Amino acid sequence: PPGRKVLIVYAHQEPKSLNGSLKRVAVEELSKQGCSVTVSDLYAMQFEPRATRNDIVGCLHNSEEFNYGVETWEAYKRGGLSSDLIEEQKKVQEADLLIFQFPLYWFSMPAIMKGWMDRVLVQGFAYEFPNCYDSGLLKNKLALFSFTTGGSREMYAKGGISGDIRYLLWPMQHGIMHFCGVKVLAPHICFAPEYVSEEKRKEMLTAWAQRLKTLWKEEPINCSPEWYFK
Amino acid sequence: PPGRKVLIVYAHQEPKSLNGSLKRVAVEELSKQGCSVTVSDLYAMQFEPRATRNDIVGCLHNSEEFNYGVETWEAYKRGGLSSDLIEEQKKVQEADLLIFQFPLYWFSMPAIMKGWMDRVLVQGFAYEFPNCYDSGLLKNKLALFSFTTGGSREMYAKGGISGDIRYLLWPMQHGIMHFCGVKVLAPHICFAPEYVSEEKRKEMLTAWAQRLKTLWKEEPINCSPEWYFK
C-alpha cells in the first residue's frame, strides 16, 4: 500500500538472469502499489563480504585481540562503523519489508549476501542481548526469501535426495531474520529455472507479480521448528 | 598416520582467538602424527568471496548472458579458472581430510568461508551431474566442521531457543560436503567460549587435541535427515 517501504537485497551478477527479472518485477509491482522501493544490488555495488578491521573507523576498543562482534558493537554505539554499513543499516531501518533475491548456492545464499548479513546486522543495531528472537531490535518488519534453485522440486521434496527445501531455510529464516525479530513471510522459490522452457520461466515471473499483489495481506509463517522439520 | 594429508580451511581475523588456537593445536597434533598439514588462512590470504566474471581467465562461453555455474564449469575443463581457485583445488585434491575451522556467524560459516565453497567447489571438479552425493567427485575424502558459537549449549539444545545445533549443520555437512561425495566426521563444537573462564577455554583446546589423536579411527556420521532432524 502507498507509503510502505521495501528494501530488495539482490545478489546476481547478470541483469538478464531470471533473478534479475524477478527483481525488476518486484520493483515494478511494488512501485505500482505506491510503495517506495530501494534496491541493494550487491554485485553492482561490489559489496564487501569480509568481516574485517576495516569495518571500524578509528581506534579499536581492544587492539590487542581483535573481536569482530565486540568491535562492531562498540563502533555502532559511537557511530564508528564504515560508511557502507551505515548506509545499509539506514535502508534496513526505514524498510517495512526486506526481500532477499538470489540464486541458491550450496543450500544457502551466495557469499556476497552472507557478507551483507554478517556485516550489516551487528549487535546494537539488529539485536542486543537479551533482545533477540521475538524481542529482536528489527521487530515490526517483514522479510521474504525469494530464490532460484539448481535442483528440481523433486530433489527438494521430503524424502528427495536433497531433503525438504524447508530444512535449508532454517538458518536463513530462523537463525538470521527471526533472531533479529523480523517476521518471515513464506519463501518464494523458483525451482530449476535453467531446465525449463522460456514459457515456464515467463510463468514464474507472472506468478511472482501475482503474489506481490496481495503480499501485504499475508500472515507470517510460524517460524518455529515445527514449520521446518515436522 | 604418516603420509595422510590434511587441509585446514581457517577463517578468523585474530591469531590470538580461540579459533586461532584450535587451528594451531590441529597443525601441531596432526604434524606430530606424521600427517602433512596445509592451512588456507582465508583472512590472511584476503581470500575473495565474491563469485564474479574475474574467476574466469580469457573469453566467456556465453558473454551475452553471464551464468557463473556454466562459466566456471567450462573454465575448469579448459584450465581457465583464476589462479587462486586452481591453487585451492590442488590443495583439496591432495587432501585426505578437510577441516573447516571458524566462528559460527548467523547459524552458518562466515561469508569469507562461504565464498571458498562457492568458488572452489565448481562443477567438473567437485561434482558433475549425475555424479553427486555418494558418487560426488571428492569421494574418499573426509571433512570435519570445527567451530565456536556465541550461543550456549542450552540455547542450541533440542527445544532450546535456537533449536538443535544439528539443524544448522544440514546445509554445510549434507548440502556441501556430502553433495561432493565427501564423508563427514562428527562436528567439533566449542560452545560460547567468550562466556567461560580461561581455564575452560584451555580445556577446550586439550579436548580438541585429544580427539585428534584418534581421529583416523572414527567412523563418518550417517549423513541423512535422520541424523539431523529425528
Give a verbal description of the structure.
- Chains A, B: Keywords: Cytoplasm, FAD, Flavoprotein, Metal-binding, Oxidoreductase, Phosphoprotein, Zinc.
- Chains A, B: Residues 5-212 form the Flavodoxin-like fold domain.
- The structure is a homodimer of 230-residue chains.
- Chain A is α/β, with parallel strands linked by helices.
- Chain A has 7 helices and 6 strands; from the N terminus they run βαβααβαβαββαα.
- The longest helix of chain A has 16 residues, at 198-213.
- The two termini of chain A are 35 Å apart.
- The relative contact order of chain A is 0.15.
Computed structural class of chain A:
alpha/beta
Strand content of chain A: 5-15%
Gyration radius of chain A, in Å: 18 Å
Order of helices and strands of chain A: EHEHHEHEHEEHH
Low-pLDDT runs of chain A: none
Seen as an oligomer or otherwise, the chain set is: homodimer
What keywords describe this structure?
globular; 230 residues; alpha/beta; homodimer
Outline of this structure?
The first copy, chain A, has 7 helices and 6 strands.
Write the layout of secondary structure elements.
2 copies of one chain form a homodimer.
Chain A: E1 5-10, H1 18-32, E2 36-41, H2 68-77, H3 83-94, E3 97-103, H4 111-120, E4 142-148, H5 165-177, E5 183-184, E6 188-190, H6 198-213, H7 225-229
Parallel strand pairs in A: 1-2, 1-3, 3-4, 4-5, 4-6
Helix pairs in contact in A: 1-6
Subcellular location (chains A, B): Cytoplasm
Domain Flavodoxin-like fold (chains A, B): 5-212
Subunit structure (chains A, B): Homodimer.
